Amino acid sequence: MTGGSAGIGYGICAHLLQHGCEALYLLGKKEEHLQEAEEGLKQYGDTSKVHPVRIELEDLRQTDQVAKELASKLGRLDALICNAGLGVGVYNETKDKLDSHMQVNHISQFHLAMILMPLLQKTPNSRLVLQSSEFHRGSRDVKFASEAELNQDIGAMNLYHRTKLAQILFVKALVKRNEGGQLGLQANKESSPYFIATHPGGVNTDQPKQAKDAYGTLGKIGVTAVKPFMKDPVDEGCRPALFAATSEDVVKEKLQGVYVSLRSVH
């Protein structure tokens, strides 16, 4: 679970622990936040099953190191939930000189997923879940053609929208390549991981603060207006990803390459 120390990720971890998961690897950016999350999760279950791992998604070398360490130590992987992400916020570049939104929300988690793909492949009915958003529909004139294109400051909202579209397209690309037996993926659909994108809905997390920073007074007004309608991350916001990662219906209904929200699966 990436981004598991707060918000929706923490909510997902709470439910997984509450229902007796065998092991839960909680990946997060800051050591102190991981410790706080582990302490808070004690109310939901046995935290001896929780394994905090610090990952810096703005550093591809460090992400690669974490991914390979996990790949070498784990014998199976029932689900990889790529939940970490930057919200609507100002343009910045990472240590790797890439747009921070694109690297954190997609590129680094893409790399993590591909390194761990062999584990997912050998674990029956495993899942790769990407936390996308309905905001992917707001992307316009995006080609993903070059690093120069990705490093254009196209505005706080568009930077976020673009990454959510990238996650949707990643799921579609994995399904297509799986069906063609490419990139080492098994053509046999019965043994393939399930690739699913999800939309959590409006959830009360720390991401709205990024919108305030990006849009100043207008951002504050907007966040204040919608906050009463935002869902609690533990009670509701985590449900689509939880369904995608754990429901037996995914296997029964062969929900491969679908997009899951609170109200629909398509």
Architecture overview:
The structure is a single chain. The protein has 266 residues and is an alpha/beta fold. The protein has one domain (7-260): 3-Layer(aba) Sandwich (Rossmann fold). Helices cover 47% and strands 10% of the residues. The chain contains ten helices and six strands. The chain has helices at residues 7-18, 31-40, 60-73, 100-122, 147-150, 156-179, 207-226, 233-237, 239-246, 249-252, and strands at 24-28, 50-54, 79-82, 127-131, 194-198, 259-260. Strands 3-4-5-6 form a four-stranded parallel sheet, sandwiched between helices. A two-stranded parallel sheet has the order 1-2. β3, α4 (100-122) and β4 (127-131) form a beta-alpha-beta unit. α4 runs parallel beside α6. The radius of gyration is 18 Å and the shape is globular. It starts with 6 loop residues before the first helix and ends in a 6-residue tail after the last strand. Mean pLDDT is 88; it is low at 221-231.
Nearest-angstrom radius of gyration?
Answer: 18 Å
Largest sheet: 4 strands, parallel
Highest CATH level, the class: Alpha Beta
CATH-defined architecture: 3-Layer(aba) Sandwich
By DSSP, the count of extended strands is 6
Q: Indicate the low-confidence ranges by residue numbers.
A: 221-231
CATH fold topology: Rossmann fold
* Strand residue content: 5-15%
Distance between the termini: 24 Å
Overall tally of domains: 1
Find the structural class using helix and strand composition: alpha/beta
Summed up, the helix count is 10
Overall average pLDDT? 88
- Strand line-up across the major sheet: 3-4-5-6
What is the CATH H-level superfamily?
A: NAD(P)-binding Rossmann-like Domain
Percentage of residues in helical conformation: 40-55%
Q: What global shape is seen? A: globular
Give the SSE string: HEHEHEHEHHEHHHHE
